[in-house]
């Protein structure tokens, strides 16, 4: 099937991102795998090619507006779902080591298929809960960047994500719209977890009215051993 890829290229160009032909082919294959698998399991409600390009691929790569990705060596994507933003980041920045984490084994199976089909190297999809994996020495404070497009409250997300980040690394939370009040309410929990808010970047996605806010939290010290708490606790009793 033929796709109009020029709009994709143009949108990325506005973020100073360019793709080789092989990278563009990887995105097309990723889209086709996503749509095919979506017929038998719920991966995304967005299936139109142009919408997937904008709302999943371009959005995933919008992290370049807040972080110099050329300085990043390792990324963990917490609650990755269908692979966003982790797989687009891996395609565009193949030198980065990527871990995709999700609590649903079927999604992890799909992600493994995508990794193999796109011939991606130094990337893995792992099944687990953030509360448990954040206590595992194999993953705890092993990454210089954690990303998440999950929609949880920022205090909850920070408890899920900051334990994975090494000192001087960053957690980038993809949020929608204005988040000033949410950030204010999460400042103390973030500090408890060894972090501080470094920047808030709000913008419209290229050629759209879709609002995106990227919150960058710097890891300034080690996360106390008691965090993250047992599975279910961060969401049930968010830190205050």
From TrEMBL:
Belongs to the methyltransferase superfamily. RNA methyltransferase RsmG family. Its EC number is 2.1.1.-. S-adenosyl-L-methionine binds at residues 79, 84, 130-131, 149. Residues 221-240 are annotated as: Disordered. HAMAP family: 16SrRNA_methyltr_G. It is found in: Cytoplasm. InterPro entries: rRNA_ssu_MeTfrase_G, SAM-dependent_MTases_sf. This is Ribosomal RNA small subunit methyltransferase G. Specifically methylates the N7 position of a guanine in 16S rRNA. Its main location: cytoplasm. Keywords: Cytoplasm, Methyltransferase, rRNA processing, S-adenosyl-L-methionine, Transferase. The keyword S-adenosyl-L-methionine applies. The keyword Aminoacyl-tRNA synthetase does not apply. One of its GO terms (cellular component) is cytosol.
């Amino acid at each position: 099937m033929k796709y109009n890829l020029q709009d994709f290229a143009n949108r990325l160009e506005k973020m100073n991102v360019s793709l080789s032909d092989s990278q563009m082919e990887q995105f097309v294959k990723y889209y086709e795998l996503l749509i095919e698998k979506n017929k038998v399991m719920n991966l995304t409600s967005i299936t139109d090619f142009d919408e997937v390009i904008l709302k999943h691929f371009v959005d995933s790569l919008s992290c370049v507006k807040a972080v110099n990705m050329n300085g990043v060596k390792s990324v963990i994507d917490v609650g990755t779902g269908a692979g966003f933003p982790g797989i687009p980041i891996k395609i565009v920045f193949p030198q980065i080591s990527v871990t995709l984490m999700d609590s649903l084994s079927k999604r992890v199976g799909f992600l493994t298929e995508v990794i193999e089909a796109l011939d991606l190297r130094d990337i893995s999809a792992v099944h687990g809960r953030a509360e448990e994996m954040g206590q595992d020495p194999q993953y705890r404070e092993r990454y210089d960047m954690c990303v998440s497009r999950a929609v949880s409250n920022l205090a909850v997300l920070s408890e899920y994500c900051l334990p994975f980040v090494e000192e001087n690394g960053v957690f980038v939370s993809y949020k929608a719209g204005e988040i000033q009040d949410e950030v204010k309410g999460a400042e103390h929990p973030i500090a408890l977890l060894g972090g501080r808010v470094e920047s808030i970047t709000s913008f419209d996605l290229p050629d759209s009215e879709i609002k995106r806010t990227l919150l960058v939290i710097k890891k300034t010290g080690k996360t106390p051993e008691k965090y993250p708490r047992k599975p279910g606790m961060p969401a049930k009793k968010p830190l205050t």
